[in-house]
Amino acid sequence: MNGDTLTHMPPQIILGIESSCDETSAALVSIENDQLRVLSCRTAGQDDLHAEYRGVVPEIASRAHLDRIIPVIRGACADAGISTKEINGVAAGHRPGLIGSLLVGTSTAKAFAWSLDIPFVGVDHVMAHLVAGLLDQVALEWPAIGLVASGGHTSLFLMRSPLEAQLIGSTIDDAAGEAFDKAASILELGYPGGAKLDALAETGDAAAIALPMTRLDKGDFSFSGIKTALALAARDPQYAGKSADLAASFRKVVVAQIIRNLSLALDEHATPSCLIGGGVGANSLLRREAAITCGQRSVILRIADLRWCTDNAAMIAGAGALRIARGECDGWDLAAHPLSEIARGDRGARRRSS
């Protein structure tokens, strides 16, 4: 990778642990000659525990992590055929997220690393979403524009290397994934709703209903207005029975705003590559439009594989492997933190960490 000198190192196997929200995940990733290869990934979701509340309940999430984290780690090791003695380091997503959930994964990772006398590193969850596009892929040309679009973040970055990301744009209110989930709730599609809205939108007419798109300066995003517009349209008798059209129209505007800002960033910085990660990266329209946008500019697009778009430990292990390969290691006093460091950039704290 052009941004970091990581070549000619012996292969290393890194255990990654993810528990930032409501997925308990463990993965083993190897790094050799700059390449990140996923050996295994086990994830235990909690959708059934939170469905009746139409959102994640922090206390329920953290208790579920406690019950599931050890079996998930054992399962990941068994799937890869790797013994604990073969693991060279441990990485945990230690920020951002629900603090109780983060503490479970971070504490487990520290204990695991300490017991084996191997390096421990903390990983910023937002950075890991960017690294997800590098898993099981050939080396990428740097610099790159990075986009993270998820339930908690919608952020644009200028990336000099896999672990260097400068914030150049972010949401001022809702994240894109949060907006999709709220839209699904408005349309009574169930929880979690982002994927369900995407599927419904594929059957609808995106031009049937005119919804507004926010256009902010400097690459920032805003999705609260479109969410309100959808809520009002859903109550309008003329749109009764047109849930598919409403879903398609909503998706079209949200994706159009993301692509607009992505295009501006690609044109301004003229990078040879683009990385996209996060749960919204699984959105079918966004994937199509991003491919077109990058293709028109002869930009190499690395959008995370569908397996690695939602929260998972493979991306945590990948980011941790890159840090450990550079000789980095964190102390046992590394704290869990609810906010992302890179997604705040030089802009200071906001209501959200995006």
Run of helices and strands: EEEHHEHEHEEEHHHHEHEH
CATH class of the largest domain: Alpha Beta
CATH architectural label of the largest domain: 2-Layer Sandwich
Query: Structural class given helices, strands, pairing?
Result: alpha/beta
Query: CATH topology of the largest domain, anyone?
Result: Nucleotidyltransferase, domain 5
Notes on the structure:
By secondary structure, the protein is of the alpha/beta class. The protein folds into 2 domains: 12-136 and 312-325, Nucleotidyltransferase, domain 5 (2-Layer Sandwich); 144-304, Nucleotidyltransferase, domain 5, CATH 3.30.420. It is built from 10 helices and 10 strands. The protein has helices at residues 47-50, 58-80, 99-116, 125-131, 176-186, 194-201, 224-235, 243-269, 284-296, 313-325, and strands spanning 12-18, 24-32, 35-44, 89-95, 120-124, 144-149, 154-161, 164-170, 273-277, 300-303. Strand 2 and strand 3 form a beta hairpin. Helix 2 (58-80) packs parallel to helix 3 (99-116) and helix 4 packs across helix 10 (313-325). The longest helix has 27 residues, at 243-269.
Q: What's the layout of helices and strands?
A:
Elements: E1 12-18, E2 24-32, E3 35-44, H1 47-50, H2 58-80, E4 89-95, H3 99-116, E5 120-124, H4 125-131, E6 144-149, E7 154-161, E8 164-170, H5 176-186, H6 194-201, H7 224-235, H8 243-269, E9 273-277, H9 284-296, E10 300-303, H10 313-325
Helix pairs in contact: 2-3, 4-10, 5-7, 5-8, 6-8, 7-8, 8-9
